[in-house]
Amino acid sequence: MPDAYQRLWVPHRIAYIHSNHDGEKTPEGGCPFCAAPGLSDEDALIVHRGEHAFVLLNLFPYNSGHLLVCPYRHVALLDEATDEETGEITALTQTAMRVLRADSNCDGFNIGLNQGRVAGAGVADHLHQHVVPRWASDANFFPIVAQTKALPVLLGDTRDALARAWPA
Predict the structure, then answer these.
(1) Inter-CA distances, 133 with 12, 13, 96, 128, 129, Å
(2) Most buried of the four, 76, 105, 147, 157, by CB within 10 Å?
(3) pLDDT tens sequence across 81-132
(4) In this structure, is residue 98 part of a structural domain?
(5) Is residue 6 part of a domain?
């Protein structure tokens, strides 16, 4: 007998479920942010590569267009990063905001660093800054009653659009 439930199918989330909510390692056992630069931009979801840091899409986004700005060097905390790394992370974050605003017409941003596992860092050993676009209409009942976030755009499509919009 059919029930009254509506279902939102999000099969891409199974990778997160199988990881036991622990983004600390790649399937090969290494750091995902150290492995990403060795892959193609499309495979790693990299939007832009800088000299000391790079920008990629979050594999488990809070919103469509959720970007991460990471130094290439494997460093855990902001106070362990060099001046060159922190300067480029800041500059790339500013560019990410401009690109997201132009590409997706977002209304605001959540920007932050979760430093250490106790602070909510899924990958606690490699510094990464979140740039999460927000829209006035992006809050609805799904996160409240179903702990579900509806993401209307595929990650690959989002990566392609943001990479095309990134200034040369």
Answers:
(1) 20, 20, 10, 16, 13
(2) 76
(3) 999 999 999 999 999 999 999 999 999 999 999 988 888 788 889 999 999 9
(4) yes
(5) no
Domain membership of residue 7 (yes or no) is no
pLDDT tens per residue, range 25-54: 555 668 999 999 999 999 999 999 999 999
Which tokens go with 115? 């430093």
Query: What is the CATH number for 102?
Result: 3.30.428.10
* Domain span including residue 62: 25-159
Q: How many domains does one find in the chain?
A: 1
DSSP H helices in 19-117? 32-35, 41-44, 83-104
Q: Please report the sign of the dihedral spanned by the C-alpha atoms of residue 66, residue 142, residue 120, residue 17.
A: negative
E strands, the chain, in order: 46-49, 53-57, 67-71, 108-113, 129-134
- Compute the distance between CA of residue 91 and CA of residue 6 in angstroms, rounded to an integer: 43
128 part of the active site: yes
In a domain, 94, yes or no: yes
Catalytic residue among 48, 52, 66, 128: 128
Q: Which residues, at least 6 apart from 13, have a Cβ–Cβ distance to it below 8 Å?
A: 60
